[in-house]
Amino acid sequence: MKTAVVLRHAERRDRSNNWSHLSEAGIEQARKAGSRFERFDLVVASPLPRAVETAVAMGFAVSQTHLGIQDIGERILQHVHWSDGFAAWATAYRSAPLVKSYVDYVGSLLSGWLDEVPEGGSLLVVTHGGIVEAMAVGLGPESDFNQLGPAAGYAEGFVAADQPGGAYSLPAVRL
């Protein structure tokens, strides 16, 4: 069995600055989140400082960054807002072809990174609000996303554990 933990970055100092670094509260959020996990075989982060710094403050070195998990794009946000929550992303996936394409793309990134992890290993992905939810839907579009609740808050997200038959269990990670 392989496991992926997908989290939104921790709180940044300046929400009006996309390149802002973590705040002191964000560092504490990341440390708290990191204390739940022993190790990861692969750590992928958005290249924005707040994502990389979240992984590091959690206690894990970033193996690679990927531009594909840095930004959602305005065209997607016309159908679903980044803060709308897991169930809203699943609904948009089924009703908006552009959202479906995007979700399939980030889901394929996540699946590809999981393929790089050895059997029994684990993956950490630190990204942004909306992308966390899109990745969950990309792994299991037919899942009940109401169970995951609202959008991921700072240093929150989900755990994906592969199950027999290619399905995933998707419990939420909340601070």
Characterise this structure.
By secondary structure, the chain is of the alpha/beta class. The protein has one domain: Phosphoglycerate mutase-like (Rossmann fold). The protein contains six helices and seven strands. Helix 2 (49-58) links the parallel strand 2 and strand 3 (64-65). It is globular and about 40 Å long. It starts with a strand and ends with a strand. The mean pLDDT is 95.
Task: State the gist of this model.
This protein is an alpha/beta fold and 175 residues long. Strand 2 (42-45), helix 2 (49-58) and strand 3 (64-65) form a beta-alpha-beta unit.
Radius of gyration: 15 Å
Tell me the count of domains: 1
Distance between the termini: 25 Å
Question: How many runs of DSSP E, i.e. beta strands?
Answer: 7
Features:
175 residues; alpha/beta; Rossmann fold; 7 strands; 37% helix
